[in-house]
Write a structure and sequence with these properties.
The chain has 180 residues and is α/β, with parallel strands linked by helices. The chain is 34% helix and 20% strand. It is globular.
Length: 180
């Protein structure tokens, strides 16, 4: 997977396009996709009643179709690299956190404290949690796999219910994959 990390405030290059489709985890929400040129910039979850979504085109075309295919594979229990580049804007600290998160295997979790140790900032546990919350690409950079030291879910930008459902789904699909 090609990941481009850009510091906050960097100029945007290329065309920006937004698309949406129904969220497989919660049908009353949409997954809103922002593409910048050939790179995926963000995945957001929005309630269908959000007025801003009324004008958003449905998901079609090259990168969006490939992303939908990736999500469908994910839902069938397979984990693959994203089929195109990811464009992640953030600070160098956030980039370090996101790079470590991207390496957490499906069905596994780590704590915010472990993640802070992994990036060489053992006292930055809260900052690690904040960086997780700023992750623009949940699922692709699986911040839902980071938990509190006590095993509690902590937070998740798409909501704790979705975080718990994702973790349970990954645990069960991981077991199925190993049994096959």
């Amino acid at each position: 997977m090609r990941v481009t990390y850009i510091a906050n405030g960097a100029p945007i290059c290329g065309d920006v396009a937004e698309y949406a489709w129904v969220d497989a985890f919660s049908p009353d929400h949409l997954i809103c996709v922002t593409l910048e040129g050939e790179a995926l910039r963000s995945l957001k979850r929005r309630h269908v009643a959000d007025p801003a979504l009324r004008e958003m085109p449905g998901a079609s075309g090259g990168n969006v179709a490939r992303l939908r295919e990736w999500v469908e594979c994910y839902l069938r229990g397979y984990e693959n690299d994203a089929p195109f580049g990811l464009l992640m804007r953030g600070t160098p600290f956030q980039h370090a956190v996101w790079q470590r998160i991207a390496a957490i295997p499906r069905g596994k979790t780590i704590s915010y404290a472990q993640l802070a140790l992994m990036i060489g900032k053992p006292k930055a546990v809260r900052a690690v949690g904040t960086a997780c919350g700023a992750n623009p690409l949940p699922l692709l950079v699986p911040c839902h796999r980071v938990l509190g030291s006590d095993g509690r879910p902590g937070g998740f930008g798409w909501g704790l219910e979705i975080k718990e459902r994702l973790l349970a789904f990954e645990k069960s699909s991981q077991a199925v994959r190993h049994a096959a």
